[in-house]
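FAQ: What does a ligand-bound record look like?

Like this one, built around zinc ion:
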Amino acid sequence: MKDFSAVEDVCGDAGPEAIFDTRFQLLGHELSNLKSSGQSELAIGDRKFLMSKIIVLMGAPGAGKGTQARLLQEHLNIPQISTGDMLRARAQEQDALAKEIQAVQASGKLASDDLVMRVVEERTAKEDSAHGYVLDGFPRTMAQAKMLEKLGAEQGHKIVAIVVDVPFELLEKRATGRLSCPVCGEIYNTYSKPPTNDKKCDFHPHTELVQRVDDTAEKVKIRLETYNEQTKPLIDGYDSTGRLHRIDGTKKQEEIHKEIEGIIRSNGFIGGH
Ligand SMILES: [Zn+2]
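The answer part, i.e. the structure of the complex:
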């Protein structure tokens, strides 16, 4: 029965706010016709139904992507699937796959595309992902993107990519300006949230604030350049297939969230037209 709820009512009487909360049951054959026809929309009487979606959320380190993924999970009730968290959690279990992940972690190497894909596949097969899900940190490579296309087709989900765009200079400032108190852990930023007294914690006036070793200008630059090199082919790929949406990541978190929500809810982009 789970397949019946893989579509969402988009033109109900309940108003736009209820779009994602309203589930309609369809006859099984209508849904399988929809899936096999490759269309993303189905009209029954005066109601329209949309295919569920996989949201691929992209953004450079410090762009605020993690916050957006969490907001989506809270407001739209779509599970947020972060590859890093998922691998860490999966490694705690007691089976062959967990042992494989542990071995990779112990070696200090990156998990292979195949291993990450198996974990994503397993996680997204759970009931909570039946209406779609938000991917954070996946796909990272073209090989992973191709595997995701196949998985999306199998699961009957459309893929939509959203990039939270923040200019390089601002990302650099956000990261290099970050300071924290070694006593209480309070985070400051010399650009956006400076301490009252120069480099001293507001709560511990005798404690000098410290910078993380990863947040030096040099390391931040390498981090951002690596991100750009890695994701450019993916972004180009989604762009060329009309599935890419760019969001101005310099706006307030709530505004960014509203825009992302608009993209997910909007009818027009579905199916790329
Ligand atoms: Zn402190």
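Follow-up question: can I read anything off the structure? Yes, for example: Residues 181, 183-184, 186, 201, 203-204, 207 surround zinc ion (CB under 6 Å).
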